[in-house]
């Protein structure tokens, strides 16, 4: 099976349709499939339901699809960095299904594992539980949550081989691995592409059986930082504290 495609548009060709459910990996701007999101925008599909921990920021990540009003519904945990999202939601133009972050992660993992639903204590007695089945087990109350299996998953990986075996790097190993398992088709953008067999099997995070299409990112692909936090440099200007004679 040929998995390598020349660019993001080619990798998504024939997969996109109005009204589909899409997993989009990443946390903030870390590990987001930016090139694939841009290609979805350019394809013009609409009425999308997108599952993502957050909605990107204005002008980046899923913010691109919000600006073009291609997203009808977000299933998310945190969306506080996107003014466009807030404006559309408050105007009644965007539907949101909020999930506690751990619950969202487990819903995706369950979808990939073929588990249709599970029970969790998280959210019981709150608005999160409204309209959902609840049960009591051993004197404790639980809320039933449904697993999520998407039409398409778009994810970002640090390295892949030509068979689709994936390695994620640091914080970018967030929602990407579980989303790769929980969709009919998984398309991945990668920073480094090597031949099959060149990744140590013990280093593989996602087996290639879950990946159908791969696009290699250009060397100058920009990985944006959502919030840069640095510590001020301390300069000692007191000669008395100097070791210089």
The separation of the N and C termini measures: 70 Å
CATH H level: which superfamily? Glutaconate Coenzyme A-transferase
Number of strands: 12
CATH topology description: Glutaconate Coenzyme A-transferase
Briefly summarize what is shown.
By secondary structure, the protein is α/β, with parallel strands linked by helices.
Descriptive labels:
nine-stranded mixed sheet; single chain; alpha/beta; globular; transferase; three-stranded antiparallel sheet; 27% strand; 245 residues; Glutaconate Coenzyme A-transferase; NagB/RpiA_transferase-like
Q: Can you describe this structure?
A:
The strands form 2 sheets. Strands 1, 2, 3, 4, 5, 9, 10, 11 and 12 form a 9-stranded mixed sheet that branches. Strand 2, helix 2 (34-43) and strand 3 form a beta-alpha-beta unit. The chain is built from 6 helices and 12 strands. It is an alpha/beta fold and 245 residues long. Keywords: Transferase. It holds the Pfam family CoA_trans.
